[in-house]
Amino acid sequence: MINLYITATKYIQLLLIALYTYCNFRFLSIPDQDDANPLCDWQLRIILLVHFLMNLTVFLKTGEVSALIFYVLQLIFFILYTYFSVRLYRNINRLLLNNTVFLLAYGLITLERLDMGKAIKQFVIVIGAAAVTLVIPYIIDKVWDLKRWRYHFAAFGILMQGIVFVIGATSYGAKMSISIGGFTFQASEVVKITFVLATAGMLSQAESFRDIVITSLVAGAHMLILVMCKDLGSALIFFVAYLVVLFIATNRVFYLMLGNIGMCLAAVFSYFSFSHVRTRVFAWIDPWADIDNKGYQITQSLFAIGTGGFAGLGLYQGLPNKIPIVEKDFIISAISEEMGAVTAICITLVCLGCFMQMMVIGTYMEDSFYKYVSVGLAIEYIVQVFLTIGGAIKFIPSTGVTLPFVSYGGSSLVSAFIVFAIIQALYIIQGNEDEADERAAYDNVSGGAYDGPEYIESGYAEDGYDGAGYEDYGFDDADYDEPDHDADYDADYDDADYEDYDEPGNMRGKGASGSYRNERIRAEDLGL
User: How buried is 526 (Cβ within 10 angstroms: 0-12 exposed, 13-18 middle, 19+ buried)?
Assistant: First the structure.
């Protein structure tokens, strides 16, 4: 009976995740987030339903009450996290919020299957990171001017990477982590955020070629230390992000071409300089030649993906633990084996949807600093996704980076929360500015500052309104003669000359509450 339930759940889960992915891209085509909110509500219901079905499978297979308790705690967290996010920030991007919960849900389910102890540890970090980063949009919007701290961010990043180079622990051939007070964290996960903030701030203030050179030297210092630490995956992420932001800031194709040439030369240099890079390249080219040693990890990953097929074997029906470091670099292979290639593809598409939404937000940012930050973080995110999934399917050599929100690892998880919180902050800032522009536009059309009764959903509130009467302006009803007019005037005066006022070309998805689109205003008065 349990196996029958697992089989049924497998196909139900495929249908639900396909529907969720469709909603993810359908959201991008809806011009107003108020209209998209019902779609987002359905997305959240789908997530919670899939989460319930998969956790019920875990409970039925393990028979442990702790699994049931763990599910309830996750459910409470997901509900509270989405509730407080929406309540605290009216203009929050619901798509990114839902996708965060979606990726966390699949990551925790997979970790439960692989190692319950690691799943619990990951969940504790999730709660802490979510609670702390929930205030980041407020801090960026109201308290902290990030642009002024660009040099501090640059100095912090170089200093942190320098500490890693001197005292960092070596793992899988690269120096990546620092241990402080019993806690181990990967410094590059934090530095990749300060790196974008520093270079974006410097490029937004650049006025000459000299400023571009200085910014490039700062960026190069970050990447040089990463190469010296043999953390080439992070170095590649930094490089691509800076190259794209530099191109957007300068609009010089020459920089793009020069950067690509430099990247190719750096790849050749890394191959001949670092033995672990050569090992990974050999394993990528022909893993079957040394299947029991250098090629073992990638071949087990390919076996898992091939065995799972499109629909997957079902939870606890495969052997994902055969893959070395499966909970980090190769978690997408474990998902593909037991939940199917369709699920893995949908997760990839959801990550792509996050990237597209980040780029859209960056496109509509009026402040160049915020624009570069959004684009830089978006590029870092999608490159990391590409390196993780590409390495697991043997599209590129394995680089050792993790899948944000899904893979096991506290540093990666906290970093992903911070990145998404910063993007949400930019979205909220632009939304607030758009609403201010709407009010200003309405005041201009009204002939000055609006000092009438407050407009509410049901109409104008008249309580306490002490507007001036005709007599206050010198009008006397007894002396007033209505002017004659053409009898056909009323017929010519048609509602077709009027149209509803809507947001004038603001950012896609901004909330409409608080706007004046219910007011009837002449289109020609607005210049439309």
Answer: middle
- Token duo for residue 86: 């929406």
pLDDT at residue 499, rounded to an integer: 43
Q: What is the pLDDT of residues 230-251, one digit of tens each?
A: 888 889 999 999 999 999 999 8
Q: Which residues pair with residue 169 across a beta bridge? A: 177
> Buried (b) or exposed (e) across 313-333, using 16+ Cβ within 10 A?
bbbbbbebeebeebbbbbbbb
0.90 exceeded by pTM: no
Token pair 């947001």 in the structure block, residue: 503
The pair of three-digit structure tokens given for residue 89, joined into one six-digit string: 């920030």
Token pair listed for 165: 């180079």
Cβ–Cβ under 8 Å, residues 58 and 113: yes
CA 269 to centroid of chain Cα atoms: 33
Q: What is the share, in percent, of the chain residues with pLDDT greater than 70?
A: 83
**What's the distance, CA 243 to chain centroid?**
20
Q: How far apart are CA 122 and CA 120, in angstroms?
A: 5
- How far is the CA of 228 from the CAs of 175, 217, 259, 275, in angstroms? 9, 16, 19, 13
488-to-206, 482, 498, 522 alpha-carbon distances in Å: 63, 16, 18, 21
Rounded to whole angstroms, how far apart are CA atoms 276 and 273? Answer: 9
